[in-house]
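Teaching assistant here, posting this on the class forum so everyone can see the example we discussed in section. The complex has two components, and the goal was to see what a joint structure prediction looks like when all of them are supplied at once.
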Amino acid sequence: MAIEYKKNLAVFHDVVSVEEAEALLEWLQTKRTAKVDLTDCVHLHPANLQVLMAAKPAIQAWPTDAGLSAWLESALVAR
Amino acid sequence: MNPLLEQFLSEARDGLQDIGEKLMQLENAPADAGLMNELFRLVHTLKGNSGLFDFPEMTRVLHAGEDLMDAVRNGQAAYSRKLADRLLDAMDFIGMLCDEIEADGVTGAAHASVSVHLVKGLRQLMARDEVAGIAERHLAAGITDDTSAIPAAETAASLAASLAADLPLATIPEPARLEAYRRASAGEPLHWLLYTPSEQCFYQGDDPFFLARQTPELLWGGIEARTPWPPLADLDAYCCVLDIHLLSAAPRILLEEQYRYVADQMTLTPVSRFALVLPQGDANGGPVYDDFVSDARNLLAAGDLAGLARNAGTMLELSSPDLWIASALRWLRLVLETEPENRVVLDALVDSLSSLNAPDWTAVLAGWVEPRATHPADPPPGHDHRPLTAAPIESIHEDRPRVDESQVSGDDGVRSVLPILTTAEAEALAAILASQREILALTDTPTWLPGRLKAAAAVLSACLRVSGATDARPALERATATALAENTGAALLAWLDGQFSSSTSSDTRAKEEASTAPVAIAADPPQPWPQPEAESEVKFGRRAEDAIAGPKSLKVDQAKIDRLMNLIGEMVVAKNALPYLAGRAETVFGVRELSRDIKGHHAVINRIAEEMQDAIMQVRMMPVSFVFQRFPRLVRDISRKLGKEVNLVLEGEDTEADKNIIEALGDPLMHIVRNSLDHGIESPEIRRAAGKPAAGTLLLRAAQESDRVVIQIRDDGKGIDPETIKRKAYAKGLIDEATLERISDQEAVNLVFAAGFSTAEQVSDLSGRGVGMDVVRTAVEKVNGTVALTSERGRGTHLSLSVPLSMAVTNVMIVVSDGQLFGVPMDSVVETVRVPRAAIRTIKRSLATVLRGRIVPLKSINALLGLAAPPRSNADDELAVLVVRLGDESVGLLVDDFRETLDIILKPMTGVLSGIPAYAGSALMGDGSVLMVLNVREIL
């Protein structure tokens, strides 16, 4: 699994594909105070990104991949 | 290659061919609406089909062609030779793409620029307002107009665009902007790219985010939601509602290549680097800067840039990096570093430091000319808070002169409505209205849409107030309310059209488009284009069912037909074995009954096989129009290149012959036609001087004569001068002196067929290489054809090609001589007779006999073939004579005996045997033996 769901934390690994979005959405719908750890993520499909943008979970850690991190910050940091 | 693509390619070729033909016909009858409709339909179909595949360049060009045809069809653009030229060029381009797709399966992105160029050329031909209308419609339809791909001058337009368009550049973090500025000042182009993936794109396997991350020379990128997020419970994760913005320093062409598959979802806007200079931060606090500003001004005036940089550095250290002023100082340092000579910009930055306002670059740069830039255009009023694409910008530029012209020309709608305005005011008003119209026609739905609508409404309201038409205010307010409720600009646009309808009366269509397009979108977003097909069908009163009855023909791969042909050939051979079998049954096994039965069956199988053979031959038959159809274009192009006027007359295009024969005729005919145009037909002046009509006539006529097809090419040009030919041939060593004296004019003319012959003094790109007529003769003879040339000086030249209808199956008569079997093609056999030895006379050393009152020379086939045996007679002392045709004469061949006639598949001699001209080829007999077929013409 590219997303590892812990108690209140979703850890993203490697490339998160489009198939993960459904499960991620369901998980986020039940966890109002969810956190997301993107450290090891190198790419995520925009479907997942949409879910994150809509659900606005707390981002516990940004990706180590600087390029991806810049993109995600533009989308996920509330302006 | 998948079957769908294969079919598309084959259809595209047909379509292109048809388009070419229709264009040719239109040249003669430019006013023919039916032809025009058909042409439009062809282009339209082709475009639609191309959309099934990933050939953005092809679709783009076809789209432009379609628009142009539509404009012509509706009378908005005039048909002209130029138009035909450009369309033909465009179709050639498509043809080239087809070839490439066939070879590689893909089209190279390198064609993008060519396609853009072609599109530009096509669009230019449309009336100016038409362009604006189309652009507007595209914009309204959310389609990236192809014109956006035109490398808009990254000068005035880019400056104006990025300054005026108010791209959300401020959202880009300052370091990214500083970097972008640095690279732009080093000469790299900056582009703002807005990528709006379609909602369904996830289902198509797209990953827009990945695509965006791969953007070349990416400087900064951001993602936004198109609409506010719904409650999490209602969210559809697989409906893409993201917008991707990015700033790239890659050239336009690279960006277009990266996004070529989603070109319709992407807009590119050139960005001026100055638009990036937006100091940001806390405007309050920090040290007092007045001293610094006055120092800086002095330093600037003194040209002490190093000092200025030092001061700015010190100042920066003193200021908190979050301050607005610190940001401005960073920009100042960057400009000092990258473009120290750019005083205008430096001045502006220093000014902004004192005023604590971002420099107003529009004003600053108004008088400043960048090395390769022109004056930036003023931003059109009301262009706030919306990202402008290159398309609308262009259309504005296209648009404005139009409005102005309409004002100047006195067709002054605004004034007639609002008589109190001066001309200048009316012009300004018209420009404002045009801008509002465009804003309202935008179909993107940014979060600030209500704000945009309100702004437009406010502008319109102000227009009303200024023009004194205050009584229209309530209607405007109503329209505004409706527009806000519906969240589209349609209502306001409708009001605008109603109120100022006559303002665009110079072109009613533009108005119509402006008003219909958005309405159509509101009703049915996925199909913003009116369906022209449907329109034309309605026009012709056709019912839908009628259209379904497609052509009743099949497209079959030629290889399949060839296979059938081979199979029937084998069948014929196998069938021919039956008589031998019958013979064996009778002679070897002595069963007469069985022998008769076998013969009876052979007759039946023979009949079926013959019919089958005939049917397959029919399948392979093609009309000569297949080769003729390319000539109108060829003649047109060449004659225009040579400055000659030529009428091409085609006759008998439906004459049919075997596909191989027809194809073999293509090149020879091309050579002949070129020769006629280049050497035969004179230029108009010379023709007039010679008392001939200025336009020469080139006639191509095909006709069937028994089992041959005769193609005649006749021109009324200057003909061939036998003296010149003789001299040239002698000079080139093709004939010796004796021949030079002896040969007749007709023979001399035929010297043009000799290899290496050329009369042209200079090798042109059309002819003169001395291979032309030689190639013609060789190619025609390869398919058993003949060429005859006659020419009359000053009157013209006449070439006649005679080729067989088919070359697959040959009917031969089998003869026996000296115990061997030979085949003689039935084509040349006149009759078979048995002549009593007494009736044969010897005239000198030749034999002859009298047949039906005519003297027929006799030759012994044994003697001709070098066989020592004398002809054998039968029991009644009669000799077997096979009378064959040789040109116009008949010749009798003395053979030992006649056998049956046979259908054979003639295999030409190959290898070392191919050098023996006495034989036309060989064939396999039913009993497995090999039959040699004589080439009667050669042995006699």
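For the discussion questions: The first strand of chain B starts at residue 191 and ends at 195. The interface with chain A takes residues 171, 197, 202, 207-210, 212-213, 218, 220-225, 229-230, 232-233, 235, 237-238, 240-242 of chain B (CB under 8 Å). Think about how each of these relates to the inputs above.
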